[in-house]
Amino acid sequence: MTVYVGVDLHSNNNYVGIINQANEVLFKKKMPNDLNKVLDVLEPFRNDIAGIVVESTYNWYWYVDGLMEKGYPVHLANPAACEQYAGLKNVDDKRSALWLADLLRLGILKTGYIYPRQERPLRDLLRKRLHLVHHRSSHMISIKNILTRSLGIQVKSEEVRKLDEDQIRRLFPNEDLFLAVNASVTMMKHLNNQIDRIEKAILAKARLRKEFKGLLTLPGIGEILGLTIMLEVGNIRRFEDVGDYVSYCRCVKSIRTSNGKNKGKGNRKNGNKYLSWAYVEAAHAARRYYATIERYYQKKLAKTNKAVAAKAVSSKLARATYYVLRDQVAYDEKKLFGGKAEPGAILG
């Protein structure tokens, strides 16, 4: 007898559902997040289990690793690609678990990537770096907004980074505004220290693998962003084409159309937010040092806002990355921003 297991995982419990080839329910129960108790439930079915489907939530590491250590075939379900029919009246943990098991039974389960366990800590450290960079940027924007709103001036980021208490006091005699700006400047300096510390730790223990060396030929991508992309991508071959990769990086529009009309938006959060952040960071760096990219950015900016223009640059870099990694070639600016593209070349 072949059986299929579905698990709806939450922060403090998990619901286990087990079905057979005829979709008959053999077991269903809400379990505490205790791996030993889950293993006790699975043990009677060990030799018959075709696969265990675990929903890809934020806390799946311990559950999936524990099952795989015991030799169970585990699949990570992609929740964004496995949404149940929206018209259902009743959806709960039991139905979700049994539904995941049934998708596996039918052979139509959309799975996520189970990233190698040994590389996850370094990847998560790089994710923390991006998280801190994101917060640092939010403080930078806050300071610029206060300067523009209160004094009617626009200041470059380089000048904001140089601000000290005395300068802030001269700019803002008002105590409330001084405290607001000084708080953000202080937090930026603290975040800079933590980001530098993380980067040093990463560079002391990690290097780009041979197949990812080409990342360093891309504009705006240095060792740290290269490592970030490498550890988030894993294997570029898991993406069938460039569109899949760019979509995974959240570098394409999320829109639904029918008969040429806009029918709403798709799931814009589907994909990897860390790759999205990494490519936006690379886009801003590339603009500063590559005139062609700056011109492209300004062209987009004339038609839209800064965020969308930067995203357009990041989308270009993501497309270039795919071909650089897949074909093991160096970045070619002409193929990305102009000139006739050849088969297998970097497309604009």
Let me know the largest β-sheet.
5 strands, mixed
Instruction: Give the rounded overall mean pLDDT.
Output: 89
Roughly what percent helix?
Answer: 40-55%
Number of helices: 13
Summed up, the domain count is 3
Question: How much beta, percentage-wise?
Answer: 5-15%
Strand arrangement within the widest β-sheet reads 3-2-1-4-5
Coarse morphology: globular
Find the structural class using helix and strand composition.
alpha/beta
Compressed to H and E, one letter per element, the order equals EEEHEHEHHHHHHHEEHHHH
Using the CA coordinates, give the radius of gyration.
Answer: 24 Å
Cα separation of the termini = 52 Å
User: Which spans have pLDDT < 50 for at least 5 consecutive residues?
Assistant: 339-348
Number of strand elements: 7
Write the layout of secondary structure elements.
Layout: E1 3-9, E2 13-20, E3 25-32, H1 35-42, E4 49-55, H2 61-69, E5 74-77, H3 93-106, H4 120-151, H5 157-161, H6 165-171, H7 175-205, H8 223-233, H9 242-248, E6 257-258, E7 261-262, H10 273-289, H11 291-301, H12 306-327, H13 333-337
Parallel strand pairs: 1-4, 4-5
Antiparallel strand pairs: 1-2, 2-3, 6-7
Describe the structure.
This protein has a five-stranded mixed beta sheet. It has a two-stranded antiparallel sheet with strand order 6-7. The chain starts with a strand and ends in an 11-residue tail after the last helix. The protein contains 13 helices and seven strands. The chain folds into three domains: 3-114, ATPase, nucleotide binding domain (Nucleotidyltransferase, domain 5, 2-Layer Sandwich), CATH 3.30.420; 118-205; 219-337, no CATH class. With 348 residues, the chain is α/β, with parallel strands linked by helices. The longest helix has 32 residues, at 120-151. Residues 339-348 have low confidence and may be disordered.
